[in-house]
Amino acid sequence: DEDDIKNYLSEGNHPNDGSGDGSTSEFSWLILGDAATARGSAAAAVSFGADGAAVGGGFSFASDALSTMTTVGLSSKGVALSYTYVNGTLVAYANTAGGAGLGFGDRPVFSLTLDKVTGEFVYRQYDQLDHVAGGGENTALKAAGGSIAGIDFGAVIEATDRDGDTIGLDGKVIVTVTDDVPETSIWTDSTVRVDETGGNNDDNLTSFSSRYAASQLFTALTPKGNDPDMPVRYAKDDVVDFSIDGGADDTGFSTGSVNGSLTLQINDPASGLFTTDGQPITLSKEGELVVGRIAGGTVAFAIHIDSAGQVTVAQYLSLKHSATGNNFDDSVNLGNKISAVLTVTDYDLDTVVKTISIGDKIAFDDDGPS
Fold first, then answer.
1. Distance of CA 107 to the CA centre of its chain
2. Could you tell me the pLDDT band of residue 253, with boundaries at 50, 70 and 90?
3. d(Cα 279, Cα 35) in Å, to the nearest integer?
4. pLDDT at 270
5. d(CA 88, CA 118)
């Protein structure tokens, strides 16, 4: 399970979680870190008969093992794998340095150590293997023929008896590799408040530069409301926070191979809000914006979210608030009408989507006479 990898090349989401997923996290000198490690034996697949096993051990790698593995067509992060032996161990690597054999700058991906006497083997995986696009925690690996369900190491292992008779173990020693997928979480941090009073109140933007930057998010909207009693208000705050753990398909301890995006989603187009003169406001998704319009299409307000979870609100028409006596600062919000959607895709094109309601974190505070 690629979850069990943890080293400078790659880090799965659940290393050191025991062997319940089929493999464990074990230290390897080859990469000076933990490899996803699984053990098995080819012995049960072979009966050496009357002659017994060859002197010195009946199990070995076939003479054409390296070329046979190459034809399988496995890859890691888009790089076709090369193969070599290191102290008798079969090693697959991405030849990123470009030299002959496994050298400094190359990226080890997996290895197979075979005990010639017992037939026991140890499979160690140091970095991710490319799985087919999507499919979550599947075991289908990209290969020359399209995909394979597992790596048939039996195709490169031979059993030899004392007379020198040899048989291949095709289909008898197969290692399946379970894909790792991103793990994410999303939560709300603050409420963005537009204060109709204007000035330096709530989250209103007051400087020329901040107001200009906000206005550029909404330039395509027409027709914008024009309220003679309330100039356009802009407000901005950090409403949404999130975390992304890219897993083994990421690049080492970073999120270099994982793409995440934040978008807005309308849960109910009926906003529940009204302009001061009583016109209902309907929500629509227009590009990356959520826009509230009244009958005839005039924009009352619009909402934008950026990649960091900062929400910017532009208000063009004043809104109706409850009559609460001398409380001039009562508030209305969008309740459960809109959500933020976090979409995360890793190198294998596994996609994870998390959604959280944020309408109650978008508030419009009232103004009053003075």
1. 22
2. very low
3. 63
4. 98
5. 15
